[in-house]
Amino acid sequence: MLVVDDDPTVAEVVAGYLVRAGYRVDRAGEGPAALERAAVNRPDLVVLDLMLPGMDGLEVCRRLRGQGPVPVIMLTARGDEDDRVLGLEVGADDYVTKPFSPRELVLRVESVLRRTRPSPSPAPAPRPPSAAGLTADPAARRATKDGAELALTLREFDLLVFFLRNPGRAFAREELMREVWGWDFGDLSTVTVHVRRLRGKVEDDPARPRLIQTVWGVGYRFDPAGREAD
Questions:
Q1: What pLDDT, on the 0 to 100 scale, is given for residue 122?
Q2: What separation in angstroms does the CA of 39 have from each of 9, 19, 23, 63, 193?
Q3: pLDDT by residue (tens digit) across 179-215?
Q4: Can you spell out the DSSP letters for 108-120?
Q5: For residues 190 and 175, what is the distance between their CA atoms, to the nearest angstrom?
Q6: How far is CA 169 from CA 166, 192, 194, 215, 221, in A?
Q7: What is the pLDDT of residue 186?
Q8: DSSP class of residue 170?
Q9: How many Å apart are CA 103 and CA 7, to the nearest integer?
Q10: What angle do CA 162, 163, 169 make, to 5 degrees?
């Protein structure tokens, strides 16, 4: 596991909690050094600060993704929604805002790793859920729309699978956090951002979504018929 932060105190705290949780941790204080370490020893996950000297975390994330798939959790003091969107756009799987709870960060790390590590004794895979031209294969971690592959982040993929398996039912954002990602706490706006990003990839017109509909006062509903929302 690789922790990238130019603040030695933050890096030490994060690394210390991860080590106590049983992980082997490498550290880097700047973007180029992080890329060098990742190239030599591919990490299982990267905890990546957004604000880094010389090369910011967004560019580091882009280059890490260029080297191959690796889960990334953004760790930053910038909590604006636009910053969260930027992080998700370049492929971050999760976003934790400073000041943060180290225990929550460890739980987020464990949650991401559970979804990226294959099961040692996988059960026979059920038929991939599909509807409205969308198909998501959890075993292959591959999603398509009308046969064309979709470039989804880990969180977006999990959200799509959940919607495909639960059509027609409205879910509150709290339910989605718990049922999709196993979080009992966290920033609900993260759900909003992930829904927006997923709409941008599966809707014909994301400005007028028909598949993933907003249910005012409740949350969101997946409608495979693609009917106009009330």
A1: 54
A2: 25, 22, 19, 11, 30
A3: 998 876 667 888 999 999 999 999 999 999 999 999 9
A4: HHHHHHHHHSPPS
A5: 13
A6: 6, 17, 18, 10, 6
A7: 66
A8: E
A9: 19
A10: 115
Cα distance between residue 21 and residue 64, in whole Å: 24
- Tokens 């046969």 belong to residue: 147
Q: Give the angle 32-52-63 at the CA atoms, nearest 5°.
A: 45
- What residues contact 221, with CB distance under 8 A and at least 6 apart? 168, 169, 170, 171, 212, 213, 215
- Give the Å distances, CA to CA, from 192 to 187, 213, 220: 10, 12, 9
Please report the pLDDT score of residue 92 as a whole number.
76
Where would I find the H helices in 55-153? 57-67, 81-89, 102-116
Residue range 95-124, pLDDT digits in tens: 788 778 888 888 888 888 887 766 555 556
Are the CB atoms for 135 and 128 separated by under 8 Å? yes
Strands (DSSP E) contained in the chain are 2-4, 26-28, 46-49, 72-76, 94-97, 130-131, 134-137, 142-145, 148-149, 170-172, 212-215, 219-222
Q: Residue 67: which of 107, 91, 38 has the closest Cα?
A: 38
Write down the pTM of the prediction.
0.57
Using the structure block, give the residue that is written with the tokens 């580091």.
60
Local structure of residue 122 (DSSP, 8 states)? P
Strands 72-76 and 94-97 turn out to be parallel
pLDDT digits (tens, 9 = 90+) for 63-93: 887 877 888 888 877 655 565 666 666 667 8
